Amino acid sequence: MQSQFQPRPDDIILATFPKCGATWLKVLVFMITNRSRRAVTDDNHPLLTHLPHDLMVCLEFPLCYIHPVTELEVLPSPRLICTHFPLALLPSGVSTLGCRVVYLCREPKDVLVSTWHYMNNVYRELFTEFDDAFELFCEEVSVYEPIWDHYLGYWKQSMIEFFS
């Protein structure tokens, strides 16, 4: 990832742990950054014709969306980029170039419940009992990293930048 993604100073990166409200955040940031280009009442507004996930690059799933990571360089500035990656997996330029990072976290128990419902609806064979999901969550089993480490990575960086 660090070799494929070259950040720009005016990039806006939306970061969340999975099931923390990324879709909601994408809609809000897209509306704010595009308010001068499109009227909310426009019948062809992108949010009426596309899913929020399709309106920006998602670093984890470059082949699933309209803008794969390989096309990042041709996107106009400011680029809207979303990720569930921990901060440590992003290029150092995200911090040193001054990219804006919007981080959204959620009450961990709500993340667990949302993840469990999502997994049971999409991947029924993975989680059948809530107790199993609860144990895995408490044992800090995650595709990305444990939730508290994810939260703290971004929070600590925000404190460094805030007090610099």
UniProtKB/TrEMBL annotation:
Q: What is its EC number?
A: 2.8.2.-
Q: Which UniProt keywords apply?
A: Transferase
Origin superkingdom: Eukaryota
Q: Which residues form the Sulfotransferase domain?
A: 9-157
Query: Which InterPro entries does the protein's record reference?
Result: P-loop_NTPase, Sulfotransferase_dom
One Gene Ontology MF term: sulfotransferase activity
The similarity comment for this entry is: Belongs to the sulfotransferase 1 family.
Protein name as catalogued: Sulfotransferase
The scientific name of the source species is: Arundo donax (Giant reed)
